[in-house]
Each structure stands twice: as C-alpha cells, then as structure tokens.
Amino acid sequence: MLDLLGGGQQSRAPSGEAITYHTLPTLQGWIDEFTDLHAPFVSEVVVLIQDGEDGADTGLVEIRMVNASTVTTIEPEFVGSNRWVTVFDARDEPLRLDAKTVMWLSRELATVSELCSFLERKASAYEIGDGKTA
C-alpha cells in the first residue's frame, strides 16, 4: 500500500522551510497507483535514483515511450517544489513519423501529461501530510 507520510526525508531550505525529498519507494508507489488507475499505459515508466543535496534521494521518473526514442523525464521543477515538469532531452537526429505513429505518440504524451499532474497532486498531499490519496 501507499505510504504518503513515511517515504520521504526532510531537510531545511535556507529560508527555514521544510524540503521533502521523494524517495524511490514513495515514487514507485505513486507510479504503481497511477498505472493501476490508467492501464494500459504503453510507455515504460521507471523511477531512477537522483542524488540531491547532502546525498538525499530526490527521485526521477523516466518515461520510455514506444513511439519516440527521446529521453523523457518527469521531476519536481526544483528541490522542494510541488510543481512537476516534463523534460524532453535534445535529440541528435530528427524524428520522422507517419500520421498513424504521430496519433499514437499524441496518446502517449497525453498520458505523460496526466502522470505529471498526478505526481503534482501526490506531492501536494504528501507535503500537507494528510495521508489522503490525491
């Protein structure tokens, strides 16, 4: 089951605010929950370890899309932020797709957008500490 309160570590920002680091087990639980709610999700979603300040595990979500080989990640905008962003790494070569593949890619991207929003809701609920699912 998902543990919204016990999965993160906290540190303090220079302003004195608590900064929550979302650990791999916490993020994996959120990804599992999203996958259960939105199956089938054709892209592969992997939670990677991303070292933050003082060696904290801040977590990083990588999306391996079926219809595009672009490295795509979802992560907090900055450490301690509940706003999540999707990052598309630069490509060395152009991506050429026919109309059908573009349609399938658009569906994958819509799901990536939903996942990004889902992670924002989970992070906000986590910070509030209400223990409720978003």
How would you describe the overall organization of this protein?
With 134 residues, the protein is of the alpha+beta class. The chain has one domain. It has a four-stranded antiparallel sheet, with helices on one face. It has a two-stranded antiparallel ribbon with strand order 1-2. α1 packs across α2.
Strand order of the largest sheet: 3-4-5-6
Outline, from the CA principal axes? globular
Distance between the termini: 14 Å
Q: How many runs of DSSP E, i.e. beta strands?
A: 6
Radius of gyration, whole Å? 16 Å
Average pLDDT score: 77
Global structural class: alpha+beta
Number of helices: 2
* Poorly predicted residue ranges: 1-19
Largest β-sheet summary:
4 strands, antiparallel
Order of helices and strands: EEHEEEEH
Strand proportion, as a percent range, falls in 15-25%
Count of spatially separate domains: 1
Summarize the structure.
With 134 residues, this protein is α+β, with helices and mostly antiparallel strands.
Protein traits:
134 residues, alpha+beta, 4-stranded antiparallel beta sheet, two-stranded antiparallel sheet, 6 strands, globular, disordered N terminus
Helix-strand blueprint:
Elements: E1 8-12, E2 18-22, H1 24-37, E3 44-48, E4 60-64, E5 72-76, E6 84-88, H2 99-128
Antiparallel strand pairs: 1-2, 3-4, 4-5, 5-6
Helix pairs in contact: 1-2
